[in-house]
Specification:
Helix content is 21%, strand content 38%. It is of the alpha+beta class. It has one domain: 2,3-Dihydroxybiphenyl 1,2-Dioxygenase, domain 1. The radius of gyration is 15 Å and the shape is globular.
Length: 135
């Protein structure tokens, strides 16, 4: 069902500071900030060649990342994202197997302009999983 690892997401308290570390200390290719108000985050993608790192900063008062950073003020790994060919079929199979899809269960448009869903971390050993549909 899952394809390649698309990205690892890290919640950070300051996007500019965090992205500068990846650019200046690690020599990484750092993208531009993308505001995603419907998800309550601003993101920057870092290209690592074989996958990406997504840095997440809270956007707005209702941001789920703000809650995460309240518990982990220095930041940390937030989720991992896998690609799937058919997100609706993947969600049906996961629910049939006992996994929980977060939210209303319907895909939302993610940072890459593609449909995404999140799976409950308690169903995956404490790890929040994002699925992103790819062609």
């Amino acid at each position: 069902m899952i394809g390649r690892l698309n990205h690892i997401a890290i919640a950070v308290p300051d996007l500019a500071t965090a992205s500068a570390k990846y650019r200046d200390l690690l020599g990484a290719q750092v993208g531009q900030p993308i505001a995603l108000p419907e998800h309550g985050v601003t993101v920057i993608f870092i290209d690592t060649g074989n996958t990406k790192v997504e840095l997440l900063e809270p956007l707005g008062e209702g941001s789920p990342i703000a809650g995460f950073l309240a518990k982990t003020p220095g930041g940390g790994m937030h989720h991992i994202c896998f690609e799937v060919a058919d997100i609706t079929a993947a969600a049906r199979a996961l629910v049939a197997g006992g996994a929980r899809v977060l939210g209303d269960g319907e895909p939302k448009t993610g940072a890459h302009g593609l449909p995404v869903l999140f799976l409950h971390p308690k169903d995956f050993d404490g790890t929040l999983i994002e699925l992103e549909q790819h062609r």
